[in-house]
Amino acid sequence: MNKDVVNIGLIGFGTIGSGVVETFNKNLDLLENKVNKRVNLKKVVDLDVKTDRGVYISPEVLSTDINDILEDPEIDIVIELIGGYQPALKFILRVMENGKHVVTANKALLAKHWNEIISCAGKNNVRICFEASVGGGIPLLRPLNESLASNNFESIYGIINGTANYILTKMSDEGKSFEAVLKDAQERGYAESDPTFDIEGDDTAQKLIILTIIGFGKYMKQENFHVEGISSITQEDIRFARDELDCCIKLLAITKLVDANLEVRVHPTLVPMNHLLSSVNGVFNGVYLVGDIVGPIMMYGPGAGMLPTASAVVGDCIDIIENMDPVHYGPTKTPVKKVSDIADLKSKYYLRLLTEDKPGVLHEISGILSKHNISIGSMTQEKAEKGTPIS
Ligand code: HSE
Prior knowledge:
By secondary structure, the chain is of the alpha/beta class.
């Protein structure tokens, strides 16, 4: 950036916004030395400027008027951290039309309005960076798009929702039910009071949309691929996976190229205990990918939280200051013939059935599977508890 002072505007003074302010307070010297310029957090706009966020901010920096950022010609980079679709979309498009670069953590917005946002950035010759939108503090998207640019990717497997991973880890470690662990997670503030988005896979799906664009150059809407959460996972599933199959259960985001067809899906998956992803526990995130040049890579770290996410946001600002040229995503590196329907996938499946204890039940089940050309790899039958059916 050809200026001695770079001015930054921050929209949204919530948890991550406070983390950004704290990062500037704590490490401004480091950042300014890196870019050899003054970096000035000029304005922070939020509807609520009264609540104490526990970080120092000078009163003249705070404002409730969004135009103090959108229409200030001195602001070079705008950080959007209000989340959601509107007014975030309106603000982002407006600041790009005004020639400002954008940094955002808004995966929902990017997943839904990717084409409109990227084309607006291109038209206005500005950058939009969104490292914090997937994997929180883990450097993920830029390494994928730049450091690993020489690769065609065969597959990406991600544990990219900390809440779901925390619940599955606790269920496994403590033998508690899904409901009990969720309640505990809510009490500790790890899960939202309405946790649907995290536990039913929507958050993971939005992040997978972004990963799939960067890794495979293919943009997909969430309604066009299979998304299944973890709310139906029981203690029996966890125990079976561990004791009988030497696996753990993880909510995986998967994109995989098979015979030039792209498989994109989110669902609970059996992960062998000797796979690196099985060691991604608690609120941590991990992404395992295989490139045709580099081979397997695993990226691991805190997938959420005030300071880890702020680290990615401020890193994006520094990247923009150092390089203002628009970054290109796609087109598809390896041509994709089509995106496979979940019904067409060939994969191993785990079925747990609760049946009546009467002669011929297993015969009937294997008959149904055989009719659909499904082979049984292995089968375990548990003794029924007194008074309950056999599972
Ligand atoms: N709700 C997300 C999670 C964090 O639980 O991982 C923000 O992306």
